Amino acid sequence: MTQAVILAGGKGTRLAERLNGRPKPLVDVNGTPLLELQVRTLAYHGIDDVAVLVNHAADQIQAFFEQRQFPSRVRLFDDGEPRGTAGALLACLDELDDQFIVVYGDTLFDIDIGHMLAAHEASGADATLLLHPNDHPADSDLVEIDASGRVQAFHGYPHPEGAELRNLVNAAFYIIEKKALLAWRDFPAPCDFAKDLFPAMVRAGAHVSGYVSFEYIKDLGTPKRLDKVEKHLRSGVVKRASRQHQQKAVFLDRDGTLNVLRDYVRRPEDFALLPHAAEAVRALNNAEYRVVVVTNQPVLARGEASFGDLQRIHNRLESRLGDAGAYVDAIYFCPHHPDAGFAGEVPTLKIACNCRKPQPGMMHEAMTAMNIQAADSWMIGDSSADMLAARRAGLRSVLVETGEAGRDNKFAAVPDFRFAHIGAAAHFIVHTYSLLVAAVNEWLLKVQPGDLVLVGGLARTGKSTIASVLKSELVARKLDAQVLSLDRWLRPAAERTAGVLGRYALEDAQRDLKDWLSGGALDADMPSYDRTLRARGMPERTVLAQKAVLILEGVPALLANWRGERRIWRLHIEAAEAPRRVRIEADLIGRRLADEQGAAQTYEQRQQDEAPLVTAARTTADGILDFDSIFKLTPHDH
What we know:
Shape: elongated
Largest sheet: 7 strands, mixed
Number of domains: 3
Strand content: 15-25%
Oligomer: single chain
CATH topology of the largest domain: Spore Coat Polysaccharide Biosynthesis Protein SpsA, Chain A
């Protein structure tokens, strides 16, 4: 069993007001000395042999362990004089096991140590360093690793002007092979692991590996940091961040979602964050979502950029986010491209693969590596490939109207939600979605397998949003649920007649869905609708199991007689008229379907030929939801 070494020799000068004469490792953390928390956490993860290296106030630490019972074997070693973190360990190297974990005596952590040990063993490294991103990389000591995870260099703060480095900070938690340190026993002391010994080992050719983790480890060496750690302990942040706890994530497309879409980004100079991007990522960080970038990068297969170029581009991404106090937990990219014929292309990368979106390979790889729960996670992207990849990975999908804005039309994949940009999408995920779930909760409890749910109401009242929330939550409850918009059955403009029923071919919808409505299953091509282009798109294969829940949403949902064998729930969605009008006109103008005058005319026309009939149908509803009232205590831009 691996041994742990706790470096507990610090005085804790900056924590003096909280120590009351005690050494720093015995600082009180929510009523428990830090050393006790560390030893018990190590024991929980199977590390029950602990060496504690002491110096300042060693007698108090000795008395502390004599007075308490621990499930671990604990030995103390006094190095006699301050030697620095590495110097203290080198001085007692003969007393240590062949492999050991190094823990700093001023850190609180909850790390899946078994997983880190397995990664260390697999790499064959002499030492493995826990690395993680933070929200202030510009003033942090950063570690550079290659694609295999091997440490290439250490970049101490302050960094050179204009330096753009990957946001990987040394978390001060190490696994070390004793034999790798034997040649360094006479290294000049005092010396520090991060600043002195590890850089010297790397320069000498030692295999030092980086283990990148999102898990919780923070030093509490100042009163402010201690207060923050105690808050995190009380609120459960520490426990929830453990890899042993299932994580929630937001997967982000890169080009067109995070950064400006400019053909292909081939050089760092071509990369520029979109407005709202850093703010959005920071909001997701603060809400405890793992933020994972998943991006197709065919420039590699096409020979238009090297892997080094791509790393420098991603360094710029991480630096720009870091400047705004935000970070991504991981970046996955697909280097492949199936089509040949490009000058300078790389033949080994010109393949069909499972990682190029709309295939879900990158998401699945991240879910396995980070223990991400798909049902609690999201995908934000700007293309139909992103939306289809999200569906295949079991993620809630959000289309943003930047970049491609869904106009690529490569795949028939309807997003669950749609927003103007990543900032609005992140706000919805962090602040709004839970309010909507609470609003529809009674219907989530009522709906059973095989039911039909009709969601109707006037235009721009939030019907599609409510329908998507119902579907997402039913799926999270292990029900098979799908949403179909009645806009799929909008008649071509030349075939429309007067009134709302003249715009929709509801008889076609009933015919197309007849097999399922009559109690059976359905497997057929259905029409699709591109609301951006205001036109029918390519047919989309629709499969409905007999016990699936079908949610039909659209203006006339409550106007038709949905004959069949299904139990039906009817929901009418309404909204305050003034903001609804603003949304209608803004939507028409935003999609370039009308100017201001034309948008106002369209609104007035719909008030005459649509509103009376749709509003009257509310009397047939099983429930009425006022969309705007859901948010009256939480101002935000719908």
